[in-house]
Amino acid sequence: MKIPGGKKAAVLYIGYHDPLDEAYFPKVMALRLEPGLTIIRVSHDGTCPKLKDGPCRCDAEVDTELYQP
Ligand SMILES: [Zn+2]
Q: To pair with 5 at 20 to 30 A between CA atoms, which of 11, 16, 20, 37?
C-alpha cells in the first residue's frame, strides 16, 4: 500500500499465511483478553518479511486496546 506523496508508515492488512508460521502468533495467543471487543495491534520491525508479503520473522510488538464505542 503506497499513499501518493507520502511514505509508507502503516499497513492494516497484509496477505495471509498459516498463523502457526508467523513469529508474532505465540504472543497473540498468550494475551489475556478482557470481556468485550479488543483491538490487537501487531507492530512489525521495518525489516520483517511480513511487510513484503512473507511470513513474520521479527520480534513484533503486540499491544491491545479495549474498544470503546
Ligand atoms: Zn513481523
A: 16
Instruction: Report whether 60 contacts 42 (CB < 8 A).
Output: yes
What separation in Å is there between the alpha carbon of 32 and the centre of ligand 1?
21
If you measure from the C-alpha of residue 36 to the centroid of ligand 1, how many angstroms do you get, rounded to a whole number? 26
Residue 34 pLDDT level (bands cut at 50, 70, 90):
confident
pTM here is 0.69
What's the half-sphere exposure (Cβ side, CA atoms, 13 Å) at 4? 0
Q: With cut-offs at 50, 70 and 90, classify the pLDDT of residue 19.
A: confident
